[in-house]
Amino acid sequence: MNHEEILRMVEDFLKSLKYDRKPHSLYEPIEYVLALGGKRIRPVLMLMAYNLFKDDPKSILMPAVALETYHNYTLLHDDLMDNADMRRGKQTVHKKWDANTAILSGDSMLVMAYERMMQCDKDKMYDVLSLFTETALEIGEGQQYDMDFENRSDVTEEEYIEMIRLKTSVLLACATNIGAILANAPKEDCSNLYKFGEQFGLAFQLQDDLLDVYGDPKKFGKKIGGDIMCNKKTYMLINAYNRANSQQRTELEKWINMENPDRDEKVTAVTAIYDAIGIKELCKDKISYYFNEASMYLDKVNVSDERKKNLREYASYMVNRER
Fold first, then answer.
1. C-beta atoms surrounding 100 within 10 Å
2. Distance between CA atoms of residues 245 and 312, nearest Å
3. DSSP-assigned letters across all residues of 294-305
4. Which of 102, 167, 230, 315 is the S-S candidate for 94 at Cβ 3.0 to 4.6 Å?
5. What CA–CA distances, in Å, run from 254 to 52, 247, 271, 274?
6. What is the pLDDT of residues 28-86, one digit of tens each?
């Protein structure tokens, strides 16, 4: 099945889920968050990895949406920590309701993710939950590194790559690995699909960094320059700072340290520094590197090229996306 068919399957399944438990005020924000949309990349990856080996991806929809439930739980809490007003064009939970609701509904979402993941093949449950739990711990570690970086000006490229590996990549790797586990794939194929997801995840996140600076706002769906405005330690900023000459670094530090700058002025000025240093090309080269690494691991999976075609095309589509 191609990614569009898989995505429709995921969306239809999410819409069919009932939230009948009480109190309604606890579960309404969960239903709200999961209805906001998004790329659904994690369940799509799990189903496509499963589909490499078996032809009935519908049979693992519940554990697949467990990953989407978990991912959205992290976003709900991230939005609270960042005091973000909007998510996918709608109010965030702590704005629509309040901070206490965001915390409690988020906690319930985490438990619900485990409850949904447990609805997998009982023979595979230990392996699946062990991987899921390790991944959840790693994502928390990645989020903490991201928070720690806010107060540092000496973050290295290597530290940043490790942070996004933990915060973003491992969940994509978990998705492809669990899909393979549930399809009863050989251990070597499971391992190569994990590495595929991990390397693909790095390319995916770096493309996100790139789009935040160089994306078309009409296609990107939001204003560009959000990372620049909050001085987020991205691949772009770290490399600009490390590669800048003394004049460029002074200019960069001026904008980083400026209180209440004009948004358009700051984004334009910092982007101009990126342009002068060649940061866009540097980031594109790094994206290509990780995508090629991912492709190498997918090549090693012991199924026909024909069966791998849809997953390969989906990965290429996501890494070259414009939003």
1. 9
2. 40
3. HHHHHHHSSS-H
4. 102
5. 51, 11, 14, 15
6. 999 999 999 999 999 999 999 999 999 999 999 999 999 999 999 999 999 999 888 88
Residue 246 tokens read as 């003394």
Name the nearest CA neighbour of 232 among 151, 318, 322.
151
Distance, CA of 321 to CA of 212 (rounded, Å) = 12
CB 43 within 8 A of CB 88: no
Of 242, 217, 77, nearest in space to 155 by CA: 242
C-alpha–C-alpha distance, residues 34 and 44, integer Å: 15
Cα separation, 256 vs 263, in Å, equals 12
Q: Are 2 and 313 in contact (CB under 8 A)?
A: yes
Q: Going from the N-terminus, what domains does the chain have, and what CATH number goes with each?
A: 1-119 (1.10.600.10), 124-323 (1.10.600.10)
**Could you tell me the two tokens for 51?**
């589909």
The mean per-residue pLDDT over the stretch 90-117 comes to 97
Encoding tokens for residue 265?
């002025």
Whose tokens are 């990895």? That residue is: 49
Tell me the whole-structure pTM to 2 decimals: 0.96
The DSSP symbol for 36 reads S
